Amino acid sequence: MEAIILQILNGLDKGSAYALIALGLTLIFGTLGVVNFAHGALFMIGAFVAVTLNRIFNLSFTVIDETRTDFLGNPMQVEVPYVEQWFGAETGAAIIDWSVPLAIIVAIPIMALIGIAMERGLIKYFYKRPHADQILVTFGLAIVLQEIVKAFYGANPIPTPAPDAFRGSFDVGQLIGFEPFAIVYPYWRLVYFAFAAIVIGAVFAFLQFTTFGMVVRAGMADRETVGILGIDIDKRFTTMFAIAAIVAGLAGVMYTPILSPNYHMGMDFLVLSFVVVVVGGMGSLGGAVAAGFLLGVLQSFASMSQVIDLIPGINQVIIYLVAIIVLLTRPRGLMGRKGVMEE
Prior knowledge:
Layout: H1 2-32, H2 39-57, E1 60-69, E2 75-81, H3 82-87, H4 89-97, H5 99-121, H6 131-153, E3 169-171, H7 172-175, E4 184-186, H8 187-209, H9 211-221, H10 223-228, H11 233-255, H12 265-280, H13 285-302, H14 305-310, H15 314-329
Antiparallel strand pairs: 1-2, 3-4
Helix pairs in contact: 1-8, 1-11, 1-12, 1-13, 2-5, 2-6, 2-11, 2-12, 5-11, 8-9, 8-11, 9-11, 12-13, 12-15, 13-15
Transmembrane segments: 16-35, 42-64, 102-123, 190-216, 237-258, 270-298, 310-328
Family: Belongs to the binding-protein-dependent transport system permease family. LivHM subfamily.
GO molecular function: transmembrane transporter activity
């Protein structure tokens, strides 16, 4: 039972990332009708926003510390971060320690601007083009963004730690009645799952309970009728592209302590997230989220050593096998809408 619960937690952790990226993909496809293969790059950019902010906070200058000496008895030169000089040693150290959560504040406007620039500068010219053209141009854009990041940050992963308060593991087992230390799980992974749940809930609440969201949902169902009513649906769709970019970026920011950012991480997650979207049903927001968590849990169980010993390599293909089975039995996906990508 302990192993099962642990694998469920692992699956929810992976599923959170899949669900957030797939949610953004579905927002873009559902509102704009664009298959955006550059969406994984937005996840990557969000991660590197956290990396950049951490580096900025760690910028330092050299001072002579008279209280410390080297082996020759000379005063030592030490590096003092600027934030510690500006805000004091204790506050400055806390700012550096909490650089990843603080990156959320910075990432929101940055990702919104990037999303608007992508939509207005490139994507809008492909609204009425075939999906194959959209895939090619957005895939090319993803490669360009990936190579730009590689040029500035290098090819190696860049460790970005979580705050000290969330390092280590939490005794989940004792919380639910098991023996102490029977089920322990990293704090930050639990934080990521909670964060994903909040973001997903906020997006659904925004679409369901605000006037803006209701107009967008109406535009997703019948864009021409909404336009006839005098509503500038294009501006609202641009806003939705920005929101989708923010969701992907925030997913990347909070994932940095779990997976050290590298230039190809966006492409790694993109392929799996597109499978999630297809399994959930093209254009279905609920389907994307449900499929993200479902496939994350299945992939986690398939990664158990007992399963791999029985079926070698199953952890690498389980998501694709599930996709094949779902599409054979439900061609529109689990919650797909009639007519989406069926013309």
